[in-house]
Design a protein that fits this description.
Elements (H helix, E strand, L loop, with lengths): L24 H6 L9 E9 L7 E8 L6 E6 L6 H4 L7 H7 L15 E2 L4 E2 L21 E7 L2 H4 L8 H15 L2 E6 L8 H12 L4 H7 L10 H9 L4 E5 L3 H8 L6 E6 L4 H4 L8 H12 L13
Parallel strand pairs: 6-7, 6-8, 8-9
Antiparallel strand pairs: 1-2, 2-3, 3-7, 4-5
The structure holds zinc ion.
Zinc ion binds next to helix 4.
């Protein structure tokens, strides 16, 4: 099958080590990564109680490179966005509570955003209106568990067994809930960045015999058209500069760190498909086997396939 367009995320690492990859600044500078991070601005944050137990804080972002509403699903009330909390011109305490720039817990009749009198916690700001990130009010602790998740309508909503996106999303949330802190950056880049319509065409090509990489190339898309610089910018805005990244994809580690390493991956936490871990759970379909094989064999993912005995 002819290669029509190259992947824009070359695989440069070949290791199953969980320690972060070591590459020189010189090599990092040569990678097809943007020189500067996009500008992001957190518009709103809200507490979401979940059906799974833990509360999450959903953050909605706008940015200067596309018109999509990217999200950060944050575990932990004390993880605070720099842009959301920054004092704005004519900002009132009511405005701040409405957009979610408060500390502690909202309750009927509360008047102050910056101070939770019941919990005796107060946020402080410098002369420029920037939040002072004090350790008793704002998370600045150990490297936090992070997952960078690209939107997958079919896997998350339409019960697709062609990929494991829904399962990985659930598992990442479960691990973050157990830890009490974590951040899932949810990027609106459907189908590895090619969009849902093109992804559906790629599925038909897969049914005609192409693997996931070949199908994208036949449609004249790169094998992986995703851009993770938005995720880096969002993590930096949340003050999450040291992270433990849940991923099997070595290219993602470098992509998230970018050229300037404003966000550093201190540890890689692997995501093992549930169906490989036990016999009763996880996704079982012939499509998912092909999908995972392609990730391992064609895209350099760091997964050890189990040996089939039968
Ligand atoms: Zn998917």
């Amino acid at each position: 099958m002819p290669i029509i367009s190259p992947s824009n995320t070359p695989s440069i690492l070949n290791t199953t080590d969980l320690s972060p990859p070591q590459i020189s600044q010189e090599l990092r500078n040569q990678l097809p990564l943007p020189d500067n991070l996009p500008i992001v601005n957190c518009l709103a944050r809200a507490r979401i109680p979940t059906t799974q137990g833990p509360e999450i804080f959903l953050h909605l972002y706008q940015n200067n490179i596309d018109n999509k509403e990217h999200l950060a699903i944050v575990f932990g009330e004390d993880v605070r966005s720099k842009t959301l909390y920054k004092v704005r011109p004519n900002d009132t305490q009511q405005d701040r509570m409405t957009r979610g720039a408060y500390i502690g817990k909202l309750h009927p009749g509360r008047l102050l955003a910056d101070k939770d009198e019941k919990l005796n916690l107060e946020l402080k700001f410098n002369e420029e209106g920037d939040l002072i990130r004090e350790s008793n009010t704002t998370y600045n602790g150990d490297p936090i568990l992070v997952r960078i998740h690209s939107e997958c309508y079919t896997g998350e909503t339409a019960w697709s067994a062609r990929c494991d996106c829904g399962e990985q999303f659930d598992e990442a949330g479960r691990l973050m809930g157990l830890q009490g802190h974590g951040c899932m950056v949810y990027l609106r880049q459907e189908g590895r960045g090619i969009g849902l319509g093109e992804k559906l065409k790629a599925y038909n090509l897969q049914d005609l015999g192409a693997d996931t990489v070949q199908a994208n190339l036949l449609l004249r898309h790169p094998a992986d058209a995703r851009d993770f610089s938005l995720a880096t910018a969002i993590l930096y805005d949340l003050g999450l500069e040291d992270i433990k990244l849940l991923t099997n994809n070595p290219d993602k580690i470098i992509a998230v760190e970018g050229k300037n390493r404003l966000v550093k991956v201190k540890e890689r936490v692997p995501m093992i498909p549930l169906a490989w871990k036990s016999n009763n759970g996880g996704i079982k379909s012939k499509e998912i086997e092909g999908y995972l094989s392609t990730k391992i064999e064609r895209m350099g993912h760091l997964l050890e396939k189990p040996i089939k005995i039968n």
